Structure formats: C-alpha cells, structure tokens
C-alpha cells in the first residue's frame, strides 16, 4: 500500500480495507493516511521505561553495597554523582536493540584496581528469560580526583589497609556488550 496525502489518489479498496481493520473516521473525505501511521505516545510505556530505569539504578547500587562488605572488604564506597544513572541509561540503550530487551541481559559487574579486574557480582534483570546478551560493566578506582575529600577524610591513599578502608570510584566506566546468539558469531560492542 502506498500512502498519499490526497484522497483522490487513494483507492476505495484501500479505504474500505482500513475501515475494516478498525480505522474509523467521521468524514472519509478528510481522511489522511498519516493520521493513523504516527502513533500517539503511550504513557504506559513511558512509565514502564522510567520504572525499569529506576529499578536498574537500584540494582546497581545494591550490587555495590553488597560487594562493599563481601568482595571489597571496605567500609565505604564513594560513588560520583549520577554515575549509576549514566550506566543505567547506557545499559538500556544497549539492550534496546535486543529481542528481549533488558529482560534478556546478564550484567557482570567488575572493579578495575590498577591492572587487576576484580569480579564483584552478576545482575540478572529477569531470571525467567533466557539471556540473549551479556554486558560487562567495569567500574574504575579513583585515587587521583577528589583530593580535598581524600585529604580531609583519609590520611593515606584512597584504598588503604585496615578495617575502615574507603573506595572512591572514578566517574569513568567501561561497558562491553557481547551477543550470545548471533548468526555472525560473537559480536562485542564497547562504549
């Protein structure tokens, strides 16, 4: 079917087909195909995306909180403002092209300390869905910025030994996407 802007170019068969499919219009002579092609914004989708976004931010924060005591053995983790929100936006962007979206994602969370990458946790957004892709999130330790905070609160480096260690995360991060079921083999995308 070809869309045109004037009624004279539209066949009556096309109009009757649209009417049969549920496209009812009060005045057929004023009928314009494009009125029905451009969908109205679905507020339910917008609310759902916001909930998904907020849920993902909370999962990332919980992962860091849980890892603080178990894997990192530190008392505090200082996170730059809006870091988890920026990561959640990138995760949603990378998952938007996938068949199951975020539901088909496994996120491997790591921390890079010097040249060593330490595994912190694994986030599975929806355990009931077979994963179609994996994301590897790499947080980075920051010993160079925030000097006024570091000097004020700590007497040594930002990741000192002892029972009251504090880890400062860098505002930078790495996010690597690996498609699991690609016809052209393993596809890796890094942002």
Describe the structure.
With 191 residues, the protein is α/β, with parallel strands linked by helices. Helix content is 32%, strand content 25%. The chain has five helices and six strands; from the N terminus they run αααβαβββαββ. The chain has helices at residues 12-20, 34-37, 43-70, 83-95, 147-153; strands at 76-78, 105-113, 116-124, 133-141, 166-179, 187-190. Strands 1, 2, 3, 4, 5 and 6 form a six-stranded mixed beta sheet that branches. Helix 3 (43-70) crosses helix 4 (83-95). The longest helix is centred in the first third of the chain and has 28 residues, at 43-70. 14% of the residues are buried. Mean pLDDT is 75; it is low at 1-10, 24-30 and 146-163.
Kindly, what is the distance between the CA atoms of the first and last residues, rounded to a whole number of angstroms? 40 Å
Structural class: alpha/beta
Unreliable stretches: 1-10, 24-30, 146-163
Major sheet: 6 strands, mixed
Which geometry do the CA atoms define?
globular
Q: Mean pLDDT, as a whole number?
A: 75
What's the total count of β strands?
6
Portion of residues in beta strands equals: 25-35%
The run of helices and strands is HHHEHEEEHEE
Q: What's the gyration radius in Å?
A: 25 Å
Estimated helix fraction: 25-40%
Annotation keywords:
single chain; 6 strands; six-stranded mixed beta sheet; alpha/beta; 191 residues; disordered N terminus
């Amino acid at each position: 079917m070809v869309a045109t802007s004037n009624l004279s170019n539209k066949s009556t068969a096309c109009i009757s087909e649209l009417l049969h499919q549920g496209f009812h219009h009060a005045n057929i002579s004023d009928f314009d195909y494009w009125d029905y092609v451009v969908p109205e914004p679905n507020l339910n989708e917008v609310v759902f995306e916001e909930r998904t976004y907020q849920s993902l931010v909370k999962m990332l924060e919980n992962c860091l909180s849980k890892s603080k005591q178990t894997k990192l053995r530190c008392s505090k983790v200082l996170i730059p403002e809006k870091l988890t929100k920026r990561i959640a936006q990138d995760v949603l962007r990378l998952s938007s092209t996938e068949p199951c979206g975020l539901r088909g994602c496994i996120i491997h969370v790591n921390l890079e300390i010097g040249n060593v990458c330490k595994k912190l946790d694994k986030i599975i957004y929806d355990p009931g869905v077979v994963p179609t892709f994996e994301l590897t999130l790499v947080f980075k330790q920051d010993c160079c910025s925030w000097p006024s905070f570091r000097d004020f609160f700590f007497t040594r480096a930002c990741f000192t030994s002892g029972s009251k260690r504090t880890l400062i995360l860098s505002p930078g991060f790495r996010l690597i996407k690996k498609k699991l079921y690609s016809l052209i083999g393993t596809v890796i995308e890094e942002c």
